[in-house]
# Entry
Amino acid sequence: MSIDQRIYGYIIKEETFPDNSFIIKEGSIGKWVFVILEGQVKIKKKSSKGIVTINILKEGSIFGECEFFEKKTELRITSAVAYGTARVGLLDSDQLLKDYETISPQIKGLIRALVRRLKYTTESVVSMTAKAKENA
Amino acid sequence: MPENEKITKTPLLQYNKGELIIKEGDYGISVYKINKGKISIFNEWDDKKATVAILGPGEVIGETAFLYKGSKTRTNSARAIEDSELEAWHPSILAEEYEQLPYMIKYLANEMLRSLNRMNKHLIKLRIEQKQRGKKEEKAADPWESRREFYRKPVNLPCVYRPVSSPQYVNLQGQIADISRGGLRLNVRIENSENFPHSIGHQFIVNTALPNGKEIELYAKIVTAEKSGGGKRLIMGLELIEISQEHQKDLGFFLMP
# Structure
């Protein structure tokens, strides 16, 4: 997947992470949104049966966006770990916020509902994965 | 379109307590905003029910089918758990606005939708696997279902709670004196009732960690309330209204004698 030039316009910093290093740690505070420029990133979450990988993201994918859309500061709900060497871009939060402020309350409500749904579904996947491990 | 014109064209819908608003598996792309009342969002599979969320005024429901542009059926059901008023948003106006979103916001939203899609597929796979592990095993592992008595376990658990209608940052503290699958007894400082109503019928969202480390959240309604400790404490009997399936199980295990 090639990355649209318009995305590059939002990148204020690029960083390279070695294999297995944390880009985001679950439970930490942060609102940065990232885009993968090169390589892959694993999304992981703690469960009652240890840490579970819930998604592997590729070039062009975004992560850390859930917390961005929350009104108040929220702890990171998942970890993001480099899977092989990963080069990521940090998106300009101020610009994103300015964009977000231009949209109607209806669409804002829609996006927040989407965030909530994604969080819940992720939680369900993690708890069911843990349960499957328990019974294995 | 002028703002007020939009408002006059928004149909308001009234639902009585218990009425179904959206049925999982149906087609439909209307999006609703809750004006008044309380809506339970839930999932059903096999003969199980899982509460996804309980939503109140200002929150939006029906977003997923809309964002999938009607290509998918409703992923959850929604039921009014109080008399409720909903505002139905015009799907085509909404779709037009969505199309005009700033590039990056739309990109983020589409990415979330993609993740959601993947998570949903994953969930379906996990549920099928769980089903294959056998229903028998499931039933035995669910003390909630197997117990018929409302056994009350005396405890001394610190908890935080907030009135259902209050903003999320409100965190009142209390002690749970006993808990059963039907409710709990909550002992709080009388000061808590000065800023927020603590009378019969009011509903709280209660969060606590069970001694086994499991954190649970439940919705409960005050059924009894009496002062104690020389008027310094308030002891309330709360009846459970809603609890997620996961938390219900955790509580069930904890209540096993």
Q: What stands out?
A: The CA atoms of residues 209 and 215 of chain B lie 4 Å apart.
